[in-house]
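Bumping with the actual sequence this time:
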Amino acid sequence: MLRLVIRKHSDQKCDCEGLNSMTCRLKILRLQGCGLTAETCQYLSQYFFLIHLLSMNIWPNTLFMFVVFLLSVSRCGITGAGCRYLAKVLCSISQLTDGWMGVGEWQAVELIDLDLSMNHIGDKGVKEISPGLMNPLSHLKTLNLTYCSLTDSCCAELASGLMSKENILSELDLSHNNLQDKGVKKLYIGLQSPCSVFLFLFRLRTCGLTSRSVQFLTSALKLNPFYLTELHLVGNRLENSEIRALAELTKNHKYALRTIE
C-alpha cells in the first residue's frame, strides 16, 4: 500500500486494516474532510507504533523505509492547539539505535508535503509549525495553508522560517487568508533572503492585498532574482500598472519569474 485515503462515509476501521500488512509501504495519507473519529486515530497510531517497533527490533541491521511523504488533513477541524502536535513531528529528530547506524547519527521525519488547508488553525497554529522549517534535517517542500484564518500576526514567524539556512520549502500557499499589506511586508524579510532560493511557487490569492504589497514583492524579487518562478495574486485589489511592472520581470532573463496570475 502506497496511498491511504480515508473517506467520511467509509468503514474507517476497514480502511486502516491494510496498514497491518508486512508489505505496506505507505507514502501518502489523505484524511481531508473525512469525519475522522478518535477510534480511527487510535487505529492509525497503533500502526505507526508497530512500524516503530518493527524498524527497531525485527530488522535491526536493515534500514526499514517507512515514510509518509504526503499528509493531507484538509477540512479536519484542526485548530491551533492541534498544530502543537504536528510541530513536534516537524521539529523531531529521532536517534537511531546502536548496531543499526552509528551512535550520534540522526534521521528526520521525511514528510515532504503537508496540506492543512481549510482548518481553523489561525496565527497560533502557524507559529507552532513554523520552527519546523528550521529543522536541519527537514524534508518539507510543500506547505498548503489556504483558508486557515490567518492574519499578518503569523507572517513574522513564516519569514523567519524562510530566512533559515535549513529551509528547503519550494511551494507555499497562503491564499484566502486576511494577510493584507502588513503581512506581505513581514514576509518580504524572508523572501529577499538568499536562504529562500528553494521557493519556486508562492500563492497569495485573495489575501486583501493592495498595490503596496506588489511593491514589497517586486523589491524582494529584485534583491533575490534567481528563485521564484510562479507568483499568484488573483483576487486582490491591485492596480494594473503594478501588475504590468511584475509582468515585465518575466521577460527579463535576469529573473527566474515566469508566471504571474
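The C-alpha cells above came from a reply further down the thread. The radius of gyration is 20 Å.
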